[in-house]
Sequence to fold (104 residues):
Amino acid sequence: MSKSNIYTKQETSAETKKKTEEPPMYKVFLNNDDYTTMDFVVEILISVFHKSEIEAIRIMFDVHRTGIGVCGIYSFEVAETKVDIVHKQAKKKKFPLKCTIEKE
Fold:
């Protein structure tokens, strides 16, 4: 066996021993306020978080009743992007809707 073959086998063996870690996940929440309409919250849940209409209505009622509702669980970059989109769309419609993230 040549040196190059031995080197390749050792390299491959070392690479497979590395432990792959999953990135931490983050929950994205919508927070209740007294001004944002329920229809707009449902619209956000459907368009930004890709929820079905029934699921969006359920989450909207969670937000309304308890003050907060979970929209989804994502990697940090995806969660951060969704929060930014929600804030931009709410600002465009002149709603004070707040969206937050928390490490799972």
Remarks:
- The first helix runs from residue 3 to 17.
